[in-house]
Amino acid sequence: MKGPSRRARGPKQTPRNARIAQRRADERGSPITFGEPGRTPKARKEPLHLPHVVIVGGGFGGLYAAKALRHAPVRITLLDRKNHHLFQPLLYQVATAGLNPAEIAAPIRRVLRDQRNVRVLLAEVTGIDPKERTVTSSAGTFGYDYLIVATGASHSYFGHEEWAAMAPGLKSLEDALEIRRRVLLAFEKAECCAPSQEERAAWLTFVIVGGGPTGVELAGTLAEVAHHTVANDFRMIDPTAARIVLVEGIDRVLPTYSTLLSARAERQLQRLGVEVRTNARVTGIDAQGVQIGEERIAAKTVLWAAGVKASPLGQALGAPLDRAGRVKVSPDLSVPGHPEIFVVGDLATLEQDGSPVPGLAPAAIQEARHTAKNIVRSIQGEERRPFRYLDKGTLATIGRNAAVADLGRLELSGFVAWLAWLLIHVFFLIGFRNRLLVLFDWAFSYLTYERSARLITGDCPKAAPTEPAPRR
Fold first, then answer.
1. Which of 156, 163, 208, 432 maximizes the CB count within 10 A of its CB?
2. What is the pLDDT of residues 89-115, one digit of tens each?
3. Which of 103, 191, 217, 266 does the annotation list as catalytic?
């Protein structure tokens, strides 16, 4: 009886074949292990004596810092409590049913899968010890030679944390899906579960607190949803009668833009049917509505876009903080007294020409790339360079064919600004597939006023249906 063929047995394991196999394995690279307790490091091209860079956060700052270190003589560990990178500027589109979550997010592992010097871990960081140079997380404790903290910011309710349950903010996919659920459910509740005209009006009243870019975008898009997308979908209510109220505490919306652009943005909002309230401070929020000074607005849906506070991890760095909890970094973006620690993105604050660097995605990307270069300079024994933000302009969309753009000496509004906003946001999306899907969804929505992600998650209305008089 014949034994297995040479093909089945495989090549003869001579010393020469073993050396060839080992060389090929080294060329392909073996799995990364960075010396965790109880593990034996495996051989690879990036030996363990290379400087270890730990990056906390997979947003714009963390992700672009890792990518900028692609060819650097370092080994990288990126920690994030989410497995995906989120394109936050389009988060409001998910909240208003214009886009699906997967179209503005991408798995961090997929984005960095071809970068051999980085390891991605799904873990929540719970502490940082600058003296011991360690980061403590749910995946264990990691030592570092350089640390980049890019954990961003969360909602700030200005000392009224009890408002959070009634007025969700917009910082994550979970926030966006909750807002989408509340908005779409409000129309359903008004249709089936409102026994009086007053109750129905409360369900069809939407209050957005905060007149910055997020608030303006939410208000304008919600007006389009009510006046066009769902206008003909109900039988007992008239969605076009929905009341959209935008509340801003100072004298104009979009306060970071010029007075001229702010005025244009307000006019465009009003043309969409949004009720803009400036110099109006919210003093109370409950399940039945909003208190603005002496005025009471009955509203079942309140959305928060008024303030942000920095990630609490900034407090662990032992650095000076501003009132919002952001770390006051040195000109090279390092923490004073700890040149091996860098802070980028919304968690950092740095003044330039008398004004703080804005908490925008382009600023976070520039800071991340600059930090990566400074780390390489430090490794090579060169002097670090101070960060200089290059302001390429800011844009905010309001609705269909309506936007404002501050491009330095050039200020745009209307259709041209809206087109520029669309093209720039598509360009910065991660992944060709996402760009293609977003372009298709936007084109479809532009031609039909339809929104492709009108799904309600969670419990349905449980109140007994009523029989209000049909609308005329």
1. 208
2. 999 999 999 999 999 999 999 999 999
3. 217
